[in-house]
Amino acid sequence: MTTAVVVGSGPNGLAAALTLAAAGVEVEVLEAADEIGGGTRSGHYTVDGVLHDECSGFHPLAVDTAFSRAFDLAAEGLAWRWPEVQYAHPLDGGSGAAVWRDVDRTAQALGESGAAYRRLFGPLSDRFDKIATEFLQPIVHVPRHPIALAGFGVASLLPATWLGRMLRSPESAALFAGVAAHAFRPLGSPLSSAIGVALGTAAHRYGWPVAEGGTAAISRAMEQLLAEHGGKVTTGVRVTGRDQLAHADIVMLDTTPGAAADILGDALPPRVARAYRRYRYGPGAFQVALAVEGGIPWTHEPTRAAGTVHLGGSMAQIATAEREVWRGRMPERPFVLLGQQSQADPGRRAGDVHPIDAYAHVPSGYDGDATEAILAQIERFAPGVRERVVGMSVRSTEQITRDNANYVGGDIVTGANTPRQLIFRPRVALDPYATGVPGTWLCSAATPPGAGAHGMCGHLAARRALRRAGIAGTIGP
């Protein structure tokens, strides 16, 4: 029987393990931490009964993928829950903008600039099933839906600042800046619109759902289904060398490229080793979890019903902050992404105490304390919120890296979104998952299609491994 070892139990490692196990491979997952999940962990970090997500909190690209269609995680207890407002962007003075799943409702709320918003996101939303199929795989491929992809590609090539100005109003521009900033990349650079266009369109087609009972429900469902296929997960095992993996026919590495080079050592072809060690990591995150009595009193009313909130002010202010972070300087007013997951999943609350999960974009390896900067950005758009905070937990870039070795310097997207790495990651190669070591594959978020709890990096890498092992055509579309 073909055997496999998967190093790492993040969503991609578990997706790879499931894909292999469903094809009849005997699979073991080795996890260095005492808890599975990688970026899909949850816990009570502030107040008893208040449930927080440690990293990934909302999942617009995990709802309908080749992986989700191949494996019924709902049967294992995974349930998606949606907020009324998918994401919102408050501005000074009580104004702001918000996104609903309905393009027309969103456009109507934007007033005179709504027509420009509808022209951009309406056609993309109508074709997004086909578009998502194209970008949730390596960029370099022969497209099956070239016409659907064309409109998405044109918008994605633009700098986010250009596309923001095309949306015709300060509110619309700021709304797009907030979603584009998920790329951890200067908004004036080429291709900086790509992630914003993808996530913005996904909000209308799929919404930005959360996992009921916390993001950890995703990894729990995957582990349970893996066990049903005969696979197992062993925690507390740190893999440091190839000798620990020599017994397996297939090896999947849910690690950074640098860690893969360390594990594989001299077995790795020199050109691949050089590429892996040159792989660039991006800015970091500084996280603050809050327990807030009565929730956050946003002055912009729709923001109170939003699952995700982007804080940073105008497009110009966010662009300045992101540029400073990219250059290694900590801005006075950083961009802050804030999750109000209990708007969609009230079971995460304890009475009227709400979990709030926020992180600021900070320079890679930032060794300062961004807590006050984050609180100040929240207070800026919700005066009086500090008086409602009854619990708080903080994670620095160093702690984030210590908790998950894939997050180098606090980089929670596992790699800088430079133009080169958006197209070719982790290296320039026809097969981005192949390491050059027979039977060994890289399957982390450093491979296409990149960060997220969608599991597609692991699923696609495992399918390559199955084809190479002569077990092709047994699973998946």
TrEMBL record:
It comes from Aeromicrobium tamlense. Pfam families: NAD_binding_8 (PF13450). Coiled coil: none annotated. Gene3D superfamilies: FAD/NAD(P)-binding domain. InterPro entries: FAD/NAD-bd_sf. PANTHER family: DEHYDROGENASE-RELATED, PHYTOENE DEHYDROGENASE. This is NAD(P)/FAD-dependent oxidoreductase.
